[in-house]
Specification:
This protein is mainly alpha-helical. It is built from 20 helices and 13 strands. Helices cover 46% and strands 7% of the residues. The strands form 5 sheets. It has a 3-stranded antiparallel β-sheet. Strands 6-9-10 form a 3-stranded antiparallel β-sheet. Belongs to the glycosyl hydrolase 37 family.
Length: 572
């Protein structure tokens, strides 16, 4: 009997070991752009400085022909094609990146939108005018062949033209586009916004969600869900209720994706709460960062590699790729190999969904459907209770990501800790006062050039000393919405700090950067997987602020001097 028990245990261990090594499905079906030997050989040969270059290149001939020629070539070299011949193969069978897109000047672009006249300072007004010109440089539309021969492109076809972040990012991205739209609406370009919104809605109809970005290798991961908020911003500017009526069910479908595929149950105080997380159970290295992911995986036991790749994709889904937020609690919190994104319940994701549920309730009420309005009102109330029970910390005066495995909050500072303030997802009227104290206690208000992404220095781009435009927006507008005069004063000062950093760097370099290093007087940021992206050729994250500040000469102004100004940010 003991021998048979040992044999049974051994079989169980072997089965568990095999299960842990089972391959997860690839990020898409393409054996060129998403998985397979061709992708592996080309990316591991590092023919290009940036892995994204190759997977963005269109095919010159049909994919079946490319794969057949490659297979024959690979067999002839024992599955290890020499670099020069691999380079020649790629040059023969692929076109240069960007061939599938053509420049597009938005038809609703106007030379002098009203917001420019509201900026009293001449230098700031001139700068804002130069930024407004960038819409013409960043507009793109797809060539007809992307529709007629989609199999030859990694680009996902979209009917309507759109704005890209620029630099290495020549396709649209999901959460970036919210801040792009804010800037476009400020520039009175509602038709461009409507087209971009329609593209996203079409993607939801086709795939059930909005992908991370406009490439097939992004299909199985999304990004922070801001589609409902995009619709709200568009409606505020246009009152286009007919467009809402046509698309309300598609908005509901997108929220369903998050509920069905990204929900997790958390038990606190003997009660279960449903919240959401980033989670991408798809295997293999990210095609656009293939060699980095493969090399990182080689530092781990073989059975742990698929899990690593899935966690990296979940980190990319968060928009924060990458950050100590997703490393904390791992065996080596300074190493990307410790990433555990799906093991954390993020404050910002749940605040975004809470806000979306409130907006959906308002939308359905506006359309006269009270039963659906009540459904979303109830969902919001349930999420609000979960945020309070699981993520809120009364002593600290902020919300914190919750660690599902270690069953505790991550007490580190991140601007995302205050996202519920920005999203209006709280019930305590004193929360703005508590948030202010939290910022003071964390010494965040001592940083003069922007709010740091974290206080952890890991070398990742979503950590100290980098500051990113959307995170400034989360804190600044969260405080600015409060009735508390002190909160509005701090919001104004933080906005002035950020405008000053952007303006000073632009004055020196004639470029807007995606992120800024706030530890050295405000300079272009660094770290992460690629070189910092600039506004020539592109500016991304054109975020906007209700208050743009009085003076380019760095003297605080007692009153706001303009409406909004779109600010630089690039893409992950």
């Amino acid at each position: 009997m003991p021998g048979r028990t040992w044999e049974l245990c051994l079989l169980l261990l072997l089965e568990l070991g095999l299960r842990s090594q089972e391959a997860l499905p690839p990020p898409c079906e393409s054996e060129i752009y998403c998985h397979g030997e061709l992708l592996h050989q080309v990316q591991m040969a590092k023919l290009y400085q940036d892995d994204k270059e190759f997977v963005d290149m269109p095919l010159s001939v049909a994919p079946e022909q490319v794969l057949q020629t490659f297979t024959e070539l690979s067999r002839g070299h024992n599955h290890s094609i020499p670099r020069e011949q691999l380079q020649a193969f790629v040059q023969e069978h692929f076109q240069a990146k960007g061939q599938e897109l053509q420049p597009w000047t938005p038809v609703d672009w106007k030379d002098s939108p009203r917001f420019l006249q509201k900026i009293s300072d001449g230098k700031l007004r001139a700068w804002a005018g130069q930024l407004h010109q960038l819409w013409k440089k960043l507009g793109k539309k797809m060539k007809p062949e992307v529709l007629s021969h989609p199999e030859r492109f990694s680009l996902i076809y979209s009917d309507h033209p759109f704005i890209v972040p620029g630099g290495r990012f020549v396709e649209f991205y999901y959460w970036d586009s919210y801040w792009v739209m804010e800037g476009l609406l400020l520039s009175e370009m509602a038709e461009t916004v409507k087209g971009m919104l329609q593209n996203f809605l079409d993607l939801v109809k086709t795939y059930g969600h909005v992908p991370n970005g406009g490439r097939v290798y992004y299909l199985q991961r999304s990004q922070p869900p801001l589609l409902t908020l995009m619709m709200d911003r568009y409606l505020t500017h246009t009152n286009d209720t007919a467009f809402l009526q046509e698309n309300i069910e598609t908005l509901a479908l997108e929220l369903d994706f998050w509920i069905k595929n990204r929900t997790v149950s958390v038990s606190v105080g003997g009660k279960n709460y449903l919240l959401n997380r980033y989670y991408v159970p798809y295997g293999g290295p990210r095609p656009e960062s293939y060699s980095k992911d493969a090399e990182l995986a080689n530092t781990l036991p073989e059975g742990d590699r698929e899990a690593l790749w899935a966690e990296l994709k979940a980190g990319a889904e968060s928009g924060w790729d990458f950050s100590s937020r997703w490393l904390i609690g791992g065996p080596n919190p300074n190493s990307l190999s410790s990433i555990r994104t799906s093991k954390l319940v993020p404050v910002d994701l749940n605040a975004f969904l809470c806000q979306a549920e409130e907006l959906m309730s308002n939308f359905y009420s506006r359309l006269g459907n009270e039963s659906q309005a009540m459904k979303y009102r109830t969902l919001r109330e349930q999420r609000l209770a979960a945020l309070n029970a699981v993520l809120w910390d009364e002593k600290a005066g902020a919300w914190f990501d919750y660690d599902l495995e270690n069953k505790k909050k991550n007490g580190e500072f991140y601007p995302s800790n205050l996202t519920p303030l920005w999203a209006g997802c709280f019930s305590d009227p004193g929360v703005a006062d508590k948030a202010l104290k939290y910022l003071e206690d964390s010494q965040i208000l001592t940083y003069q050039y922007g709010i740091p992404t974290s206080l952890q220095k890991t070398g990742q781009q979503w950590d100290f000393p980098n500051a990113w435009a959307p995170l400034q927006d989360l804190v600044i507008r969260g405080l600015a919405k409060a009735a508390l005069p002190r909160a509005q004063e701090v919001a104004f000062q933080l906005a002035q700090n950020w405008i000053r950093t952007n303006f000073d760097v632009y004055s020196q370099k004639s470029a807007m950067y995606e992120k800024y290093n706030i530890s050295n007087g405000g300079q272009p940021g660094g770290g992460g997987e690629y070189e910092v992206q600039v506004s020539r050729p592109g500016v991304g994250w054109p975020t906007s602020y209700r208050e743009l500040l009085g003076s380019a000469a760095h003297t605080p102004s007692p009153t706001p001097q303009c409406a909004h100004l779109h600010m630089g940010q690039g893409r992950s």
